[in-house]
Design goal:
5-stranded antiparallel beta sheet; single chain; 113 residues; 22% strand; 5 strands; alpha+beta; binds adenosine monophosphate; binds zinc ion
């Protein structure tokens, strides 16, 4: 499949990987929007959040858990951070593989878009 995040998950293209486990991989965003900008993806390919089946929704909880752990290791747990999932065209999703952004390390805009 021609999916850049599947290729990162498979180790076929390089990424600055911060975390990996049986369910998810987390790596630094190549075009960071904040001093800390991490992308957290499931190893399994789901094109969008909307396509995640109900029985797999626990996966998003695990992604949040990993984001919280990374916020600690990246030193932004106390200053605060944001987790975001963009879904679909008007949601601003560019890469068609479900992913969560972890953003922090600066004062983030209160405007959500
Ligand atoms: P989204 O707009 O939610 O689809 O966000 C996709 C994110 O993936 C963007 O912030 C990109 O900078 C990031 N991205 C795209 N390609 C790569 C890559 N090869 N390695 C790391 N991050 C990437
Ligand atoms: Zn994929």
């Amino acid at each position: 499949m021609d999916c850049i995040f599947c290729k990162i998950a498979a180790g076929e293209i390089p990424a600055d990987i911060l975390h990996t486990d049986e369910e998810v991989i987390a790596f630094r965003d190549i075009n960071p929007q904040a001093p800390v900008h991490v992308v957290i993806i499931p190893g399994e390919h789901f094109t969008t959040l909307a396509e995640l089946p109900e029985e797999k929704s626990v996966l998003v909880g695990h992604m949040v858990h990993v984001a919280n752990k990374l916020a600690v290791s990246e030193g932004i747990s106390e200053s605060g951070y944001r987790v975001v999932i963009n879904c679909g065209k008007q949601g601003g999703q560019v890469v068609q593989h479900l992913h969560m952004h972890l953003l922090g390390g600066r004062q983030l805009d209160g405007n959500l878009g």
